[in-house]
Structures are given as C-alpha cells and as structure tokens.
User: Fold this.
Amino acid sequence: MENWTLTWTKLTELSDSSVRKLADNLAGVYRFSYKADDGSYYVFYVGKAEDIKKRLLEHLSSTEPNVCIKNYLATKECFFRYAKITKSYIRDAAERKMYKQYEPSCNDKEPKGRDDVEINLT
Amino acid sequence: MTLTICIVAKDGIVLASDSRASSFLTSNDTVKKIFKLDDHNAVGIAGDGPLAMHFFDTISSELNFRNGVSVLVEQMRSLGKARFDEFFSHQTPKDRPSLSIILAGYMSSGQPEIYTLNSNDNFVPRKSPTGFECIGIPIIANYLLNRLYEPGITAQHAAELATFCIKETSSQDNRVGGPTQIASFSNSRQYAELSRDEISKMENKCDQFRLLQKGNFYPEDSTGGALNPQDATQT
Assistant:
C-alpha cells in the first residue's frame, strides 16, 4: 500500500476572479462545496485536471455541460479547494477516493483509479 | 433467496425481481420469478423457484380470468392449498417448502390490485393497502418504497424505482442479485417483459441516483488548508 500526503488548499470562493489567481498548468484534484443553511460546507462535485485553473474556468463558463454544477453555481454560495498532484495515477486514486467519501451529487460516474493508495482528503 | 416487487402505477402494474437462487454455498443467477398468467394478470414468486414453476404449470389451466383478480386470488388460494396438501402430505405444514406469491391484476371494475399469498399461511390472500408489495428479502425495498412511492408514478418510473430497490438490496445482501427481470401490463396493455437492453438502461440510470447525500455527513473543514499548493509527497 502506497501512502501519499496531499496538501489541501484553504476553502476558497468559487468565482472567476479567484480561479484566475491560480497558477497555470497546475495538475491535481479539486472539489466543489456549497455553504448550507446550517453553515457547513458540503461537497457536491469532485474532479481532477492536468490544469486546474483551465478546468475550473470551464466549469464556471456558460458552456458547462453539467447541469447539476450550473444549478449549484447559480443558486448557492460555492467554494473550492484543491491539491497539487503531479503523478497521474495518484490524481486518479485521489479523485476516486473523494468520490467514495462524499458521493457528490453532481458526479454521475464513479471515477476509475487504484484503491490501494492511501491518500488524505483533509 | 429472492426479492420480488410489485408496484401499481397510474398507467399499469410493474412486477420486478432479481434472478438469484442461493443455497448455503452456491448461487445461480438465472432463475425466473415473474410469470404471466394471462394478458392482464401476473404473478411474482419468492421461495422454492422450481416448485413455483411446476405449481403454476399445473394450476394455470384451471384458473378463470374473466371475473377479475379478486376472484382469481380466491381460486389460487384453494388450488394452492389443495396442491400443497397433495404434494406434501408426508410432511407437517411447518416442514413443507415455503412459497410466497404476489398476484397482480385488475378487478372487473378496472381497479388494479395486488395480493400476497404464502404457502406457510394456507395461501390466505392479503390485499395490498399501499400500492406496492415486496416478498423474499423485503426490508430495504419496503423502506425505499415507503419513502419514494407515490400513486401518481408512471409505469416507466415504477420500473426504475423497482430496479433501484433491487440494486440497493443486492448491494447489501448477497442473497439478492443477478440480472433484474421486469414485466409490465395494464387493463388495456398486454403483459410484456422488458428486454435486457431496456433493463440495462434503467440500471445505469439508477447508478446515478443518490438516495442519501453521503457528503452531508462529511462537511468540509472551513478553517483548515494551506495557502500555497505543494505537490503530493509519498510517505
């Protein structure tokens, strides 16, 4: 069993301006959450990208095909956090682990990835 | 073991089941558990599958379908009791194999009805008050149907709901499993079994359903986290 330690960023408002502050070509995994009425932040989408900034801007664009994400963005105060992961198979494993942990409502497929990699989600 | 579900929809009746027969060590996923009686009446079974198949083979020619399902269920009760007494005269009732039956059909008034009968209970019919019935391993399906069923559901969505109940049960109990079987009919539409392709589409759709938002129990830590991203490190 491999053990990998991810450094998760702070929860940040999911907006065009905050995403544009990210570095280019930052590979890793990310997740979206919304602020609920009880003050907690609940995850509604998890993903991975070779360029997180580019991918998040795609999510924020009007052409985002995931209606569920669009709906959250339009109706809720949304946030994101991410972790930088250079190795592709660790990204896959981390995305899969997040999916299993949160079962996010806007992910429609279980991501493929190794289950024998220990990864921290917080 | 088995899970067989019947749901009354606003435009028909849906019967669905898994296809697993399991014993202590082995299982087989090819067992048929839904049977057409005529174009507008059908049964689902749980228990001894081969016995059920023979049982319906022998009684079907004696059933009269013209007077509605309430008359049909009474015929099934008396034929069931007589056949079981004959088949298992060498055994006391408590030692006999068990057979549970869901009978679904229409009253002569056009009203859909579901009945359940059990060989261990002398085949005394019980009329469903809820619009759905589950036999075999019903606990999870009953919970889901109590939460999710409304009489206004369409037959198409009732089939999806039944598929969802079977998949959820099979994820928790390995006595339920194998390909799902679904049949549907109404008082004007003839009994028809869904194709494997149609059922696969429903199963794929069910994979996307979220009964509970698991993430609601794992909120984000809004105070933690690093300001600067650092690459993952192997430890």
About this structure: The radius of gyration of chain A is 14 Å. Strands of chain A lie at 2-5, 12-13, 28-35, 41-49, 78-84, 117-119.
